Amino acid sequence: MIEMYVKNVAFFEEGGGFAVLLCDKNNKMVLPIFIGPLEAQSIALALEKQKFPRPLTHDLMVEIMQKFSISIQKAVITDIRDGTYYAEIYLKDYNNVISVIDSRPSDAIALALRVNCPIYMTPKLIEFTYKYEELIPQ
């Protein structure tokens, strides 16, 4: 697996939507994943570490997991099929049992950012990456 981090959330007029840009630790490749505006907002807020008086959906999920002694170990972008990316969230419970949950990449990323756990992609997704300069003109 290849460790990634969220470079930023960008709006692409050409595609008419938002994308979260995952970058490898060496800044050599970027995996753009198109997401909806609400998911983009949630990820952007997590990147900025903004807190609200009332919990948003991903904040609520984290709080529930913490109350039940469940921790997020990692988020993995696993596959792309028919233009749709897939992800998994690895959870560890109070008995140290690991469970793997199917997830949308945007939810996996939003949760990972909130608990500061690693984000990975599988090597088979390398062919879908770009150089940052190819996506965002300087």
Estimated helix fraction: 25-40%
The H/E string reads: EEEHHEEEHEH
CATH superfamily: Bifunctional nuclease domain
The overall pLDDT average reads 94
> Main sheet?
7 strands, mixed
Q: Name the CATH architecture.
A: Roll
Rg over alpha carbons: 15 Å
Level-1 CATH class name = Alpha Beta
Total strand count, please? 7
Categorize the overall geometry.
globular
Number of helices: 4
How many domain modules?
Answer: 1
- What strand line-up does the widest sheet have? 3-2-1-7-4-5-6
End-to-end Cα distance, whole Å, is 30 Å
Q: Class by helix and strand content?
A: alpha+beta
DSSP strand (E) fraction?
35-45%
CATH domain fold name: Bifunctional nuclease domain
Protein name: BFN domain-containing protein
InterPro entries: BFN_sf (IPR036104), Bi_nuclease_dom (IPR003729)
Organism: Caldicellulosiruptor acetigenus (strain ATCC 700853 / DSM 12137 / I77R1B)
Domain BFN: 1-133
In short:
The protein has four helices and seven strands, in the order E-E-E-H-H-E-E-E-H-E-H. The chain is an alpha+beta fold and 138 residues long. It has a single domain (2-135), classed as Bifunctional nuclease domain.
Task: Describe this structure as you would to a colleague.
With 138 residues, the chain is of the alpha+beta class. The protein has a single domain (2-135), classed as Bifunctional nuclease domain (Roll), CATH 3.10.690.10. It contains four helices and seven strands, in the order βββααβββαβα. The chain has helices at residues 37-47, 57-67, 105-115, 132-135; strands spanning 2-12, 17-24, 30-35, 71-81, 84-92, 98-103, 119-121. It has a seven-stranded mixed beta sheet. Helix 1 (37-47) packs parallel to helix 3 (105-115) and helix 2 crosses helix 3. The two termini are 30 Å apart. The relative contact order is 0.22. The model has no long low-confidence stretch (mean pLDDT 94).
